[in-house]
Amino acid sequence: MVISHSSSGVGESAYNTFSSRYARVELPRYRMPENSIPKEAAYQMITDELMLDGNPRLDLASFVTTWMEPECDKLIMDSINKNYVDMDEYPVTTELQNRCVNMIAHLFNAPINEDEKAIGVSTVGSSEAIMLAGLAFKRKWANQRKELGKPYDKPNIVTGANVQVCWEKFARYFEVELKEVKLTEGYYVMDPLKAVEMVDENTICVAAILGSTLTGEYEDVKLLNSLLVEKNNETGWNVPIHVDAASGGFIAPFLHPELEWDFRLPLVKSINVSGHKYGLVYPGVGWVVWRSKDDLPEELIFHINYLGTDQPTFTLNFSKGASQIIAQYYQMIRLGFEDTSTSWRIARQMQPC
Ligand SMILES: *Cc1c(COP(=O)(O)O)cnc(C)c1O
Predict the structure, then answer these.
(1) Any idea which residues bear N6-(pyridoxal phosphate)lysine here (predicted)?
(2) Average pLDDT of the segment spanning 323-328
(3) How far away, in angstroms, is 105 Cα from ligand 1 center?
(4) Which of the listed residues 130, 166, 221, 320 should we mutate to test ligand 1's pocket, taking the one with most ligand atoms within 8 A of CB?
(5) Which CA distances in Å does 54 have to 49, 67, 180, 283?
(6) Helices (DSSP H) in the chain: which residue ranges?
(7) What are the residue ranges spanned by the domains of the chain?
(8) Whose C-alpha lies nearest to ligand 1, atom 5?
(9) In whole angstroms, what is the distance from residue 187 CA to residue 344 CA?
(10) Ligand 1 mutation target, pool 244, 280, 315, most atoms within 8 A of CB
């Protein structure tokens, strides 16, 4: 049995934290304190220290959602203690994730029949989604090279120099050379012509951004697709496209439905989107969907069975919270296509420029 001593003396009121000894000493910084303190004091002291943080509602820096409806806040608090990975314990949560994956895949025009299941997963954000998509491309490319008896030790990826830092992270962590198309004066996104020029037999994919981090501008994925189709035909290569739709994935289908950037283009094999940006959920949730089963090499899927039945997973992490996934489902069914479209149209009108 563990015996712990609270340092609060008997009879010391926990409600007047500011006149108590807890307000007189600095909160511990480097070592865990020997004794406990009353919960009210811990709450008050931490809350006060956090006042020096910025106000999330005024934070426009990372395009991340900072407000949700109280009903959804309640759903989130109700599920804050659910571990997403335990699919046997929480099968309904898994089902809600799968519904989101299917809705997003349909939103991005994945070529799946009504009764077919889409291929994709929830992630902590677009960064994890991009790591997973990148790994799938790298493995698929290596497998093709092995079959041809060719070396597979120098993979590269072609992007614009405007890519978000997570692509550089992917390249460094997973040992893929990042070939960046330089930006030019007055043109701040990837030039598809130059990108396709940089493609070679070791290119695992070209990554286009829908909603460049620097300016929000969409890259011309349609032109990239047609140029790359030509190049693949000439060379016999099989270089695919990934679309980093972290910010644009939940905007373009509603505001620019005619714009072809998604699975309507045959070389687009995977797409990521951040649920916590314009998916309107608090951080952190993201999504990655693949065009078809063939685009996600089977050997990357881990089958876990020690929580019960066989569970296929493809994630970098094991445990994570379930509440953001539930919140994403809430936003999907609460707003629907029409209200989301209307919201973005109104938001666009309110833009100052
Ligand atoms: C925000 C962003 C990312 C990273 O996404 P997280 O969800 O923050 O991990 C990647 N690419 C682009 C284009 C982004 O805007």
Answers:
(1) 277
(2) 98
(3) 19
(4) 166
(5) 12, 15, 34, 16
(6) 39-50, 70-78, 91-107, 126-147, 165-173, 192-198, 221-235, 252-255, 323-350
(7) 73-349
(8) 126
(9) 26
(10) 244
pLDDT in tens, 189-247: 999 999 999 999 999 999 999 999 888 999 999 999 999 999 999 999 999 999 999 99
Q: Ligand 1 atom closest to Cα of 212?
A: 13
- DSSP character for 141? H
Burial status of residue 188 (CB atoms within 10 A of its CB: 0-12, 13-18, 19 or more): middle
Structure tokens at 337: 């296509």
The pTM of the whole model exceeds 0.85? yes
pLDDT reading at 14 higher than 70: no
Strand, coil or helix: 196: helix
Expressed in angstroms and rounded, the spacing between residue 274 Cα and the centre of ligand 1 is 7
CA gap 162, 192 in Å, rounded: 13
> Domain 73-349: which CATH class?
alpha beta
For 243, residues 6+ apart whose C-beta sits below 8 A from its C-beta are 207, 208, 209, 210, 221, 249, 261, 262, 268, 270, 271, 272
Q: Which of 164, 188, 218, 277 to mutate to test the pocket of ligand 1 (most atoms within 8 A of CB)?
A: 164
